[in-house]
Amino acid sequence: MSDQETVRYLKHDRGRYFYQRRVPKKYQRALGRTFWRKPCGNVDFAKAVQLVVTWAEEHDALIANLASPETLVKETNRATRRIKEQHRKDYADLGLPLFYEMTEQRAGEKRFYPRDSLPRPWQAAAKMMAEADAARAGTPPATPVIDLIIGRVARLNDRETFSSVIKVPDYPPIIEFLDQEVETSIRKAIKLQITEPIEPLNDFDYLDWLQEAHELGFGPSNEPPANPDDRDEFEFVKRKLERKISDLSPDPNTISAVLERYCDFNSILPDTRSKYRREVGRLIAKTGDVPLGHVRTQDLRNLRDDLMGTMKPASLQAVFTPIIGIMGFAFDENIIEANPMAGVKLPRDKRPIEERKWKSFEPHEVRAILETAQNVWATSARGLSDERREAILMVVRVLCFSGLGPIEAIRLTPDDVNNRFISIRGNKTESSTRIVPLHPELADFPAWVASRGLETFQSIKSDRVGSVRHNFSKLIRSKLEQPILDPQKALYSFRSTFVNAMRRAGADIQVQRAVLGHKEAGAIRHYSDGPEFDVKRKWVEAADPRN
């Protein structure tokens, strides 16, 4: 036995070495070949062995990769695409058009037409869609293959000889035709070869077929027909084809995906993002997490109508705030062609502003709240851990003496608080970013924040303010000696309560706005030093909501 015969895939012919290996039959279609054959060049035996071993390892890895059914299907699909493209190129090089058949043949029409002269392109698309559906079911029409066989037999009768083999699948309708119409001797003469049985079309090839049909029937140059009946058929075929394509080729721009992009683009904070997810989840519960372009105006109206009986107009506006946001964002980014919210009207809150805004607490109410809070939350409370109980008490105190909003207080970190001021940053609006001087009543707050006292709220994944809001509501509605039952007085009332205290102390409107984070305050809200900060500190320290 010679040396080269001991090395697998190494062949020797007329003084030269080369690599030869059969492609496993199940992978031949995907790879577009039956053999690998590579010359090693003008090299000696040792170098040839090195090359052959390297190539064999590369092909081993390729075969191992194709062992995955999904990978094999994808590679086969790529090979099919290459073959189709080559066929199109061959036809174009010969100046031959591709012909298409429509679903109906009207009086005076031919059976087949080239693409640029199709009387009704949408019917050709419907025909292709039907053929694709049949191929996917493993029952494609046998007519094209039978016509090919008949044509070759006719050419044989004209004494034409053939060098190329005509391959036809082992498919019952074709085999039945051959048994009845084509003798064995004729089959040999026309070089007919029976191949593998037909396998159902895989999803990738099916999708390619449908997309080709869509381009044929509804490409940019195809306008809807003027005839009303034809237009109805046009729209029906188009919608059906697009639905099938959408089912096979999921649109990445689902409702939830666009919401995340919208939040990222606008730097929406985690707590607000969680709220937006909850509200948009109401829409997803009705439509499913479909591509945003599939959401219709009627879907949004249905959501509105279902919620109108369960919530006030202001709450309904809050539900639709992120929906309006993502629709506008998607339209601006060309994710959707039209904004479905443009056809949706939301009810207005007709209550006067006095009935909608939070009312401030009176000084005697503030005193009662702080005293009762100290009694209730300074010691153990049922249903609350010691950490949560202490944190709720501290947050209520901070809101009372700072003008901060509840979520602003809960988001604070040790870096945001020192012995001179509280720094509010990272809010939804630029104007909310501000410096608030530390009130004397909050002298213990910096050390408490530094001890990670606010971290108890980090375990809450949805509404972090909810725990404070719920327990504060119980406090003022049922724990006070004289309960506060006015629904417009709640946790959020502390902001107006503190600004009223500054007003009573003599602070002007610009200082009040600077502390609250209103845009009209201008640059004064940002100062953490100098005369501007001293002005704010003077009036914050002078303000006492209890008096």
Note down, in words, how this protein is organized.
The protein has 547 residues and is mainly α. The chain folds into 4 domains: 1-96, no CATH class; 97-103 and 113-248, no CATH class; 255-356, DNA polymerase, domain 1 (Orthogonal Bundle), CATH 1.10.150; 363-542, hpI Integrase, Chain A, CATH 1.10.443.10. It is 53% helix and 8% strand. It is built from 22 helices and 9 strands. The strands form 4 sheets. Strands 1-2-3 form a 3-stranded antiparallel β-sheet, covered by helices on one side. α10 packs antiparallel against α11 and α11 crosses α13 (313-332). The protein starts with 9 loop residues before the first strand and ends in a 5-residue tail after the last helix. The model is unreliable at 521-527 (pLDDT under 50).
Task: Name its key features.
mainly alpha; DNA polymerase, domain 1; 9 strands; 8% strand
Entry summary:
By secondary structure, the chain is mainly α. It contains 22 helices and nine strands.
- Return the CATH topology of the largest domain: hpI Integrase, Chain A
Beta strand %:
5-15%
Mean pLDDT: 86
Low-confidence stretches are: 521-527
Supply the CATH superfamily name of the largest domain.
Intergrase catalytic core
Question: What gyration radius follows from the Cα positions, in whole Å?
Answer: 38 Å
* Number of discrete domains: 4
CATH architecture of the largest domain: Orthogonal Bundle
What sort of overall outline do the alpha carbons produce when their principal axes are compared?
A: elongated
User: For this structure, what is the CATH class of the largest domain?
Assistant: Mainly Alpha
Distance between the termini: 110 Å
The tally of strands reads 9
Number of DSSP helical runs: 22
